[in-house]
Structure formats: C-alpha cells, structure tokens
C-alpha cells in the first residue's frame, strides 16, 4: 500500500472523516455534512433490506403455465404426456360401435393442475366405447397401507346433443404387486348419464342393487356397488343423487372403506390412477377446467 502522507483524510469506522489536512483545501463542515448524508442513506438502505428480506425470501413465485402439446388427437390409442400426467384416448371398445369417433386435447398445465377436453359421437352397440382420461404417473405403485392421502380436485362440465349414455368417473386399479396385473378396480362416479355400474345383484326392475348405501365420504354421500368384469373385482361408488361437477377431497378414505368393509387388503398396490369419461352412445363434449391428483 502506498503511503499517502499527511495529505490524506482520516476516517472513522462509520465512514465519516475525523479530519482533513488543512492543506487539502476542503471545507471541513461541507465534507462532514456530505459524509453524514451518505452514511444516513446507507443506514436507511440497510434497514430496508433487513426489513424486506424475510418477505422476499418467503414470497412464493407465481406458478408458470407449462409449455405442452395442445393439439387435437383422435387416434385409438393416442397418448399425450405433460409433466406428471398423460392424456389417454383409450378407445378400447370402439369396434363395438357401428359408427363414431372421439378426439381429445390438453388445454393447459399450471403447477399440478391440468385442464383438458374431449368430444365424442358414438352410435350402435350397448357396450362402453372408450375411457378417454387423464392418468397420474407420479406416486403410483405404493401399497395402500403406505398411502397417507390422495388429495384431488376436479371441475368439469359437459354439453350434450340429444340423449347420451356415459359416466364421468375416477378409475383406480390395485394389484398384488407393484406394477402387477389388476386385481381390483375402484370407480368413483361423479356423474351417471343413463349408464349403470357393474353389479352382482339386480332388482326385479333390472337396476343394480348396492351392497352398501348412504356412505359419507369426501363431503358427499354414496352408494356402493360390487361385481366382476370377468377379470377384476369392481367396486363402484355412485352419488346417492345428482351430479358432482366440482369435486374436491381425499380419495384415500374410499380405499379405507373397502379395506375395512369389503375385504380389500391393505397390502394391495395402487398401480393405476385415472379420471375421465366412459361413453356408450350419443354425442357430447366434456371439458375439464381444472384437475389435480397427488398420492402421498
């Protein structure tokens, strides 16, 4: 460091000059006021930073809308993946129709909330033509005993042309092993448009008979139907009345009910978690404005 001699000012630790050499020609009072002003400004700036820092750190950044494929897909087995979700057209029963088609597209993805839509027209045949759905790919293959919660929201609407036969439902499958073959199918219907669940019992009027009635779960009341589709045990929860177009709740209690009352083992693995529509006939457009599901 160079030695500046006696012509250099001396500062205290706050940055204010203790004295200037007389030979410097600097007005001591003016220099002192300027230094004091600078020190005060620095103190104010430091105080603001200390005050604002906790807010700046804790403020959560706004969720950005992800860039996804929003083009329309109409192929029988088309799949479109966006983050933790996949859109599956899954037109597994289309060969049973005399005519018809179905298309679907993603609309947006923001954080864990996805929106999508599908339109379909099917004629002929009494069976289900498809299950176009959103599938969760994250958190599956957990044993039921290891799942603490399954929070979900689903807001949707449907416009129809004439009479339709369809349902809008969650569709979940369990297996004896992680990634294994399906053993149990659990459906949670939010809407029943002239369709009907699989059942082992039917009344004299031809309608399915529930194995349990008026079950309170996730803020709604349900009837439970049980039967077989030839390959899996099928448990279907249907609202006791009306249609649920805005659902928000936890799906875990539905599994808890089945393990406590219907003999489903807690050692079963959840291998598939989907939500969509099963059309049989008619024309409709299903629009999901917001959907989310997590497995904790």
TrEMBL record:
Keyword annotations of the record: Carbohydrate metabolism, Glycosidase, Hydrolase, Membrane, Polysaccharide degradation, Transmembrane, Transmembrane helix
> Where does the chain cross the membrane?
38-57
Please, which domain of life does this record's source organism belong to?
Eukaryota
Molecular function in Gene Ontology: cellulase activity
Pfam families per UniProt: Glyco_hydro_12
One GO biological process this protein is involved in is: polysaccharide catabolic process
Instruction: Please state which protein family the record places this protein in.
Output: Belongs to the glycosyl hydrolase 12 (cellulase H) family.
Q: What name does UniProt use for this protein?
A: Concanavalin A-like lectin/glucanase
Organism of provenance: Lentinus brumalis
Species lineage: Eukaryota, Fungi, Dikarya, Basidiomycota, Agaricomycotina
